[in-house]
Amino acid sequence: MISFGKIAEFINNQKIDVDGIADTDAFKQYLENQFPALKSMKYKLALNKDIVQENTQITNNATIAIMPPFSGG
Amino acid sequence: MSAERYNRQIILKGFGEEAQQLLLRAKVLVIGAGGLGCPALQYLAAAGIGHIGIVDDDTISLSNLHRQILFTTADIGKLKVEVAAKRLQEMNTQIGIIRHPIRLQKNNILDIVSRYDYILDGTDNFESRYLINDACALLNKPLIFAAVSGFEGQLAIFNTPDHLTPSTNYRDLFPVPPDKGEVPNCAENGVIGVLPGILGTMAAAEIIKLIAKIGQPLTNKILSYNLLTQEQYTINISHGEGYTLPKTTDEFLNMDYQDTSEGPQGYIEIDANELVKLQQLESVILIDVRERHEVPVLDKQIFTQIPMSEFGAFMTKEFYQKHVVLICQHGIRSVAAAEAMQEKYGEAKKIYSLKGGIVKWRNHFLRS
């Protein structure tokens, strides 16, 4: 699990055992339960370096990145 | 063209005279002459991009100088576009620099963007970023997106198809803008000067790669950069759903980009002179919405402190004053507070927000 920006302040880069979590929708649910601050934030997931646009099966040893929008300049 | 000027890149294997000619024929628009725009502009001008447009309606302030490296202390108060154009023209006399000292809005952006081949978004707010994204998508202009937050940056190229993916846009990543105040910007959150320096320079490199057709530009990819670890992480972007992109000029003009300078907003943005006048009124409350640790500390006899973190609770209470003046460090959070108040009170109270905040009117606040 790799996280960026404000999200990295409460979700560290870490190995998460997602036994029983089969897909990205379930993973989103899991994250929002674990980290309620996410519920009111805009963010995007990437599974093995591909943006998640629809519910996708999570395979063994997958890397999931979570990214918020940045606007600063 | 003086070949001597560009000699070191022309002799570069894989670049050459042909690539240099492509740069000289290119028209690049840099939106925002700030922390990202300044370094990008320097390298684009030096490299010999033939026509460079600069858009910015802001003036230079002291707190810009640690990251906006085209400006000097003597330039404070001057228009960024003017100072930047002069510096760049002195550096490279053989290119054209076009000044656009305006704020891009729905009614002027299409005209300006359509005159250029490549657009660099180096702005500092989501309203502008969605406006620019949609305009570039509508006009099919390659858009180089750079943004920073904290010690991290994001860099991407949109509206440019590659052999794998038809062109994507920013809404494929984030379909709708965050709510006001959800994501802090540099003025609120702070930024280390060298970070936009790096991202702005990387953005210039991507534009040069696109124009000269060299290497693998970040087309349909977003790169995350971490200054503290020097780590980069690149993610492939694909087409997403859950958003509407304006398909025609009419649809574009009907979009809501929450541009506060457009249309009736209800609350009023004021300057320090108007603040002084309002202070004389009978029924007025002056509210400082900054957090308690922020400096300078204002006179609590005059300014009631209600930090944004406590503003929700305050909004559930009633108060008698008819005029409400909201201030913060840069006039961004105070706009969010003004919008919330306007929504609650409508015509019942007059709501004001100090434009530019305490930083812009520093002298006024230090005096009083």
Question: How helical, in percent, are the residues of chain B?
Answer: 25-40%
Q: What is the straight-line distance between the termini of chain A?
A: 27 Å
CATH class of the largest domain in chain B: Alpha Beta
Uncertain segments of chain A: none
* Radius of gyration of chain B, in angstroms, nearest whole number: 22 Å
Q: Based on the structure, what is the oligomeric state of the protein chains? A: heterodimer
Beta-strand residue percentage of chain B: 15-25%
Given the C-alpha coordinates, what overall shape of chain A results? globular
Pair of chains with the largest interface and how many residues each contributes = A-B, 23 and 45 residues
Describe the main β-sheet of chain B briefly.
8 strands, mixed
Write out the strand line-up for the largest beta sheet of chain B, numbering strands in chain order: 3-2-1-4-5-6-7-8
Overall SS class of chain A = alpha+beta
Main sheet record of chain A: 4 strands, mixed
Layout of secondary structure:
The complex is a heterodimer of chains A (73) and B (368).
Chain A: E1 2-3, H1 24-34, E2 44-47, E3 50-51, E4 64-67
Parallel strand pairs in A: 1-4
Antiparallel strand pairs in A: 2-3, 2-4
Chain B: H1 7-10, H2 16-25, E1 27-31, H3 37-47, E2 51-55, H4 80-91, E3 96-100, H5 106-113, E4 118-121, H6 126-139, E5 143-149, E6 152-158, H7 186-189, H8 194-212, E7 221-226, E8 231-236, H9 249-253, E9 268-270, H10 272-279, E10 284-288, E11 303-305, H11 311-314, E12 323-327, H12 333-345, E13 350-354, H13 357-360, H14 362-367
Parallel strand pairs in B: 1-2, 1-4, 2-3, 4-5, 9-13, 10-11, 10-12, 12-13
Antiparallel strand pairs in B: 5-6, 6-7, 7-8
Helix pairs in contact in B: 3-4, 3-8, 5-6
